[in-house]
Structures are given as structure tokens and as C-alpha cells.
Amino acid sequence: MIANTSHSSRTPTPKPTRAILGRAFVFTLALALIFFTLFIGHGIANNLQGIWQLIIGEADKYQSIVVWHWRASRLFGALIIGAALGISGAVFQSLVRNPLGSPDITGFNVGAFTGVLIAIALFGNLYWYSVIGALIGGLGAAVLVYLFAYRDGHSGFRLIIVGIAISATLTAFNQWLSLTVSLETAMTAALWSAGSLNGMTWSRIMPATLLILVLIGLSMLLNTRMKLLEMGDDTAAALGISVNKTRLVLMLVGVSLTAVTTAITGPISFISLAAPQIARRLHPQRHITLFGSALVGALLLTSADFIAQHGWQNTTLPVGLVTISLGGLYLVYLIIREGK
């Protein structure tokens, strides 16, 4: 009697996981967005030969200036600023252990806006004064939120509620300040407050890029400590982590990222709120990852800016209007989900 041993000798091919498919989708979409942002639109030869001439530097001078000086600088700005906002949101959501704990909700970007508005009113629309004002305003808002939210420790939900209150107060103050300054200053602040990548140039984005890269590097160095803090203060302290010091440094890095981006473009909502949660769903262990948040943040802002440029014929909207529209819908979804 011969036993039936007709099992397949072939090793089954593992199916791609959802995480791999998700990352491949993000990467493919990013490449497509970069291509369309650079080479599609009015005034550009929309054919393969014309695009190839632009790539190898044989196109006419006008088209080269449009693509490599105007569009490329704007695209690079969207990528680096989106990455900074994604990391900032990931840091704060990790610290408060709540998906609503982003700079958009807790008022840190509004505080940065307050600092820039005061700098414009006192010194005019000067770049480095705006950066310094944004840093001071964002850090000041963070200090106020943490002081008012402290009660035998910090509760993530209490931080969010206090942050919303501080944000509303600062918004009212910003409106009052806009009414008391000169008309020219008020118009400059109003245009800037919409959050826009219009007028982005290499000379404008490169100095800020160096500062953003330093802050991103610091956040990556603190990534392991941030994950330990997510396990709870007692566990982190037992593993040799200085809880209060680490939380303070992470908060400073997160606020600084928000402040620098706000000083460049004005307040841009939704990216910090959504990027870490989308990246978390693409991660196999469902953790908030800084690298994933940076990639998704860059993709979200680039997508929103593409919509702002091409969504309405002959009209270019501030990217902040697009992100805040999407962010409102996403915030309603988050509140409903958290309520359940």
C-alpha cells in the first residue's frame, strides 16, 4: 500500500502585505505628482520630446526658467514643509497620545501666526524677523497650554481642550491686531494668513530648509525615546529615560518645526493632523513613525498645492484654503471615531 504524499513541493509565494502595498502606492503617487507639477501646465511643451529637452537642458530659456526656477522651487518647498508639518504632528500626537493632539488643534500654529503678525506690525514684512516672531509666538502658546493644562501631571485630553481655548483667544487677538495696524500691514497679514506657496523661490526656501533639516535630524535622534514615552511615564523612567527633559525637548522641536513653516508660508492646517494617522495605518505595527509621517506630510501638501494650482481654471488658490477644507472633513471624522 502506497501512502498518498502528493503535497506540493513548491514554497508558497508570500503575498504583499498591506503596508508594502500602501508604501508602494504613496511612492508611485509622489512620483506622479512630481512629474505633473513640473511638466504639465500652460506654457510647457506637453509632449515627451519637450519634456526630455527640459530634463537634459536643451529647452528654450523661458521654459527652463518656468520649470527649474519657479515650479521646482515651489515643489521643493511643498515637499520639505509638508515633511516638517508631518513630523511636528507626529511628535505632538505621540506626546499627548491622542490623534487630535496636533499643532492645528492645540493652537501652536496660531501662536506662531500671532508672533509673525506682531513682527510685521513692528518691523515690516522682513523674513528673519518673521521667523523669530513665529518661534517666540509658537513657544509662547505652547507654554501657556502646558501651564493651564497642568494638574498633577498632563492629560492628553485636557491639553487638547486647553489648546482649543488658547487658540480661540489668540485668534481673537490676531483679528483685533489686524484692525489696529495700518491698512498695508493688515493686507499683508491677511494674504499671508491664508497659507500659501505662491512666490516661493530658491532664495526663500533654502535658508529655512537648513533649519528644518536640523530640527528633523533632532527629532529622528529622539525617535526611540518618543516611542518609550508612548509606553507611559513610569515605564520610560524605569528604562532610564528622563521623562520631563525628553518631553520638553520634543515639544521644543515640534513647536519649532511648526513655527518655521508658519513663518515661510503662513499657517497651513490639516497636514499635521492627518499625516501621522495615515502613516500609522501604513505601518505594520500601527505605530506613529516620524519617517512615515514626513513622507505622507510631503505627499499631502504637494497634492493640496497641485489642486490649488490646477483645480480652478485661471485661478491659483492659497494652498491653506485647500488644506483647511479637507482638514475640516477629516476633523469631523476623527471626532466621531474618538467618540465611539
TrEMBL record:
Gene3D superfamilies: ABC transporter involved in vitamin B12 uptake, BtuC. InterPro entries: ABC_BtuC-like (IPR037294), ABC_transptr_permease_BtuC (IPR000522). The keyword Membrane applies. The chain crosses the membrane at residues 20-44, 75-93, 105-123, 129-149, 156-177, 205-222, 248-275, 287-308, 315-336. It is a multi-pass membrane protein. It is found in: Cell membrane. Keywords: Cell membrane, Membrane, Transmembrane, Transmembrane helix, Transport. CDD domains: TM_ABC_iron-siderophores_like (cd06550). It comes from the Bacteria. Belongs to the binding-protein-dependent transport system permease family. FecCD subfamily. This is Iron chelate uptake ABC transporter family permease subunit.
